[in-house]
Batch of 4 targets.
Target 1
Amino acid sequence: MNEPVRGLVVSHASLAEGLVQSVRQIAGADADALVAVSNEGCGPDALQRNVLQALGEGPGIVFTDLPSGSCAFAARKLSLEREDTAVVCGVNLPMLLDFVFHRELPLPELVDRLVSKGKSSITGQCREGAHADRAVSG
């Protein structure tokens, strides 16, 4: 059995805390399995220090809200300097729920699984009724 991977959600403002609290409420996940870090009030160096401290030792995944911006930049820089650290951008709730139930998987396998889960959880539907009132230009 592999060492459980620790998850860290790094986001703008309070999004990370909301996602982590939702996962804990839904799945009853351990407080140590998934941790929230906000970029609020942090410069690049302070944010990177906060992320490094929250990751602790052992394998970890840093989930970020956007693929660019201060959170992703800090995560990517850290992953270049730290072994057994992956970065997954575009975090969503189904992805995090899957993470807490499968965090014993090997890191590369877990990352592939989470990216697939995150993508498959995004769906959309648009149905215009016969009486839809649309503005037509042109």
Target 2
Amino acid sequence: MTVNPEEGSPVGSINVVDSSPLNWLYTLFHAVEEAVGADHQGRIIPSLAKKVHWVDETTLELELRKGVRFHNNEPFNADYVLRAFNEIKPWIAPHPPGTWVNLPDGTRLEKEDLYKVRYYFPKPEGLALGKLRAHHFTNMLFWNQLGFGYKKLGTAEGHW
């Protein structure tokens, strides 16, 4: 998909023709991104988060990168992190790898400012950064029109 530079609106579409059973994964990684990623040695590194910082043993602060835009030209900021959290949190198993990547019940996310969020965990969460590797951020167009099947099925549970 490209963006009309004069209007800033998306032009065209993406047609997936790969018949691999993993094509959803390749499409996913070209359409969404996470707060953190992993390097070639498997170490967690910042991605859309410029910096991650433990405020205390149950509070994780993410400073988000400024100037990032989605492929449809929407600017990335804390509102997108909050939207993804609120959309995905109610699902029983939001990730194909399993429920181990779910954030614990009782986890809250608060927007500190346009480029800073804080996750509040109910108890120390040693796997938080690894779990955030599987928490994807999409643009609002995705949530408003597709949302992993909301429009078609009324739920997104299990519809990656």
Target 3
Amino acid sequence: MRRDIFQAIADPTRRAIITLIAVQAMTPSAIADNFNTTRQSVSKHLRILTECELVKQEQQGREIYYSLEVEKIKEVDQWVNQFRNMWETRFNQLDDVLSTLKTG
């Protein structure tokens, strides 16, 4: 079963992993050092993020480094952006009403 990107980011640990590797590529052990959990648990989260193509792996010597697939994050941004536009329109309308009340 193919997971979708929103299932992947629904978990707080996976969101924290994304935040970590957005700054720099990291090994699973380095990522696990930031959590109060096992490396095996972190590896499971990384597998899900990899299946959703949110992270990519790069072999460097004996280590595997995980980094963020920025292009895939754009899918989330595009989905959220539709609501951002809706709220900005409503706030602008509210500003207009308040300005009218203030001057009237």
Target 4
Amino acid sequence: MEWAIIVVIVVVVFVFISLTVKIVPQQRVGVVERLGKFHRLLTPGLNILIPVIDHVRVYHDLRIQQANVPPQTVITKDNVQVQIDTIIFYQVVGPEQATYGISDYVYGVRNITTATMRQIIGKMELDETLSGREKISSDIRIALDEATEKWGVRIERVEVIDIKPPLDIQDAMDKQMKAERNKRAIVLEAEAAKQDMILRAEGDKQSKILKAEGDKEARIREAEGLRQAQELEALGEAKAIEAVAAAEKSRIQMLREAGLDEQVLAYRSFEALTEVSKGPANKVFIPSNAIETLGSIGAIGEMFKNKEGKK
């Protein structure tokens, strides 16, 4: 009997403590009602409540949450059905409003997203829809912000994950894309061929220019070499003439210094003629001026004069 009383007391104490002491983790908050009316918020850490009188209505996670919106089929302005998947990122910033402003704010966010999406897509054509994900996300976020502000919920981001047109439209788009890519490939190939021809022509032009410049340079150098050779040859001839003249001048100077004047030379010449006249030839021709010169040498001159007279 005593053990039963002890167990009851322990259970009562445990229940009392559990109703009195509340430990709230970080980034969570509890909404406390006292006698059915909002009283206060439980903040992270240790909190003390009055059992039975105070009651924790709900706990909210203050971290950024995400909610997937089920794929929605909407109709574009040009009457094409597309299926859109969307995901919403939100955060509870007002726990009291999130508790009493709406029964289920996640459900409300999804419904507003669906309605807003249909309204936006209904004003856009298919091509605009396929290329306007950013605009769709922005418009949905603006519409959600206006509605969820009084719920204590802030929409952080809206992402349009996928937009799926009908299969026949997808096939047509695939064919159009392939045709566009083939066209682009043909254009690129033609552009490459054009560039190749231009580069080849430019290379051939540069090659001819370089060859012409090389030939010009070779001819210039050849002419310059020939001119220098002629100059050197003329210079050599001039120096040779100067050397001969100098040698002749030196020889004459040496003959003068040795006393070999014109009369001696004439005498030596006639000595040589005398030897010639002893040969088979019976006639010897002597210039008259030479005889006059020899006249100044006396008997020798007379001899040749007589011989001249005999002739």
